[in-house]
Structures are given as C-alpha cells and as structure tokens.
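Workshop exercise sheet. Pairs work together: one partner reads the sequence aloud, the other fills in the structure field after running the prediction. Swap roles for the next sheet.
Pair: D.N. / O.F.
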Amino acid sequence: MPKVRLSKVGKMYAGKHPAVRDLDLEIDDGELLVLVGPSGCGKSTVLRMIAGLEEVSSGEIRIGDRVVNDVPPRDRDIAMVFQNYALYPHMSVFDNMAFGLRRRKVPAPDVDRRVRAAAAALDIERYLDRKPRELSGGERQRVALGRALVREPSVFLFDEPLSNLDARLRVQTRAEIKRLHQRVRTTMIYVTHDQVEAMTLGDRIAVLRAGELQQVATPEALYHEPANAFVAGFIGSPPINLVPAVISGNGLLALEVAGFHTPVPAPLGEKLLPFRGQRVLVGIRPEDLIRGSTSDAKFRLRGTVEVSEPLGNETLVYWRTSVGVVVSRQTAGAPPPVGTEGQLEAGYDALHVFDSRDERAIA
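Structure field:
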C-alpha cells in the first residue's frame, strides 16, 4: 500500500480566511490515521483535497510516488465512505456493492467473488438480496463500507461515517472498521470530531485547529504528552482541568494557586526555572485529582461539590474552586454529597504545565 504525503498543503476559499494552512503530514503504508478537531478546523477539507473533490490552493499531495494535485478523483485509486450512505434505494445490497465494479467492466466472476468476500468480512452476507430500506442504519453503513472495500483501493478515506448512528451502533461499527483495517491493512484516513472515535481507532491521530496541525502522535502520546493546552483539552473525556497558577520563589520554586504555595520538586523546577514569576496553566486529568490531604508535596486546591454524575463504574464529581470548576474521577466508594467542602490534590508527576501566553507545553 502507498504512503500518502502532504507537503505545505493549503486551501484558501475566495474572500475567506485559509481553511488549511501549510499542512505537512505523512501517512505510512497500511496506517490508520485519524484527523480530529472541532467543527470548522479543516479536517474534512483535507480529506476532500486528498480525494480530489477540492482543489489544492498551495502545496503538494502525493499518493505513493505520484503527485495527484491535478489527477481526477476516479484515477487516484482511492475509495471514500461518507456520512451519508448514498445507497441506491431500488437496488439490492449485492447490486449496490457491485455497481462500481460493473461500471469498470470487471468480469462478473470477479465481481461476485469480491462482493461476497466483502460481505463476509462485514457480516452482511444474509442481507445481499435485501433493499437498503429493509436494513437498519448500522447495516446500511456496513453496505457503504463494503461498496468501498470491493474496489480494493490503495487508500480508504472516511468522512465522519458514524455520525448518523446511535451510540450503540457507533460502538459496533467502530469495532468493525477496526477489525477491517487489521484484516486488510490498507492505508486509511479517517475524519471525525469525536475524540473517543479518534482514540479507539487511530494508529496515530492528527489534531487540527483552525486549519493548522497542532500535533500528530499515537493516542497514548497525545493523552500523556500533549504539545499544548488545546490538545490536552481536546483529547480526553471529561476534558483535562486547566488551572491558572504563578511560578514563584528565588531558590526553591513553587506553584502558587488559590492560596496554596507548594514547593516544586527539583526535576520539574529545572524545567520551570525560565518561567519564574510568570503565569502558567496547570493541567490535571480528572483521574489524577484526588480528594484528601496526604502530603504537603503535592499540588493542592480547595473546593465545594456542585454536581456528581454516577456512571456505574465511576463517578464524576464537579468542584467549585476559587479558580473555576474542576472535575475529579472517582472509581470507588460513595461520592461526597453536594455542598461538601474538601481539599483536592495531585502528584507533581501527574501535572502538565503550559505557558499561558502561547499555551505550549513546558513540562
């Protein structure tokens, strides 16, 4: 399978700000890369430029060794799955899946073999004689996946294919796409605004914001080593807590926040030394924010419980503090009642510190 390489790719619409700016991105052979970001960040525009459905304003797109900027979509050897299933209602499932192959004059025995193999992979063999109206939303989406799969393309492109499904079907179909990729190992580029989809599907994830690439990394690296506060806040559910603080001290540095003045251990202090006297943002994942008072050598806040959200295996507790609302994740025991006051703390090894000016990660 070929690599897909974007070099300084940009997209400018007439009279508007750039939709995509100088995007450098490389998708490896057989990789499933997810493009994620909020609405309007440019992720679908990137996908449509790779597909040839949008013209490239600047830069270069390569699929394998070939520059495809001016290559028509039908000649790029890609298959695209959209949010809208776009199935022909008067055709059977088999005929919907076979339609593209027949238009390319693929011999009938090959058409039959490919359609039945794809149907088996997606567990829709029993639906081949049915019409789309006789299928559920999840089954229709699997037919759309099968229609792309039978083409045996070099690259699959997915544009928010699960957005129209309910929560249960999203989980089910997401798992089917993951299994499909593990089976065929074809290069796949998947667009979503749902960070849970991104984390569960992607070999790597590229996070976009306002048309600019913020970070590209494995799901684990994005979660534990975010490049900036935006990535830290976008990846993770519930989002990371971002607390304003000041780095103070002449010799031993400390973090000052909401009345607490806590000395910083040496390894972290060395990274924060150039920022002494400046404001920073301290990021704390909800699972790292613990109620109690076990040590002075921890980052601390005081708060009052405003809301508890029981989720079965865990409870999310929202605390009102002097620097805003923060959320903690509790996995054992009864949650504190609303109105409870208490101290929250987090170990320094669990903190993410960002420069408040440009939101870049310091430590």
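Discussion prompt: The chain is about 25% helix and 35% strand. What would you look at next?
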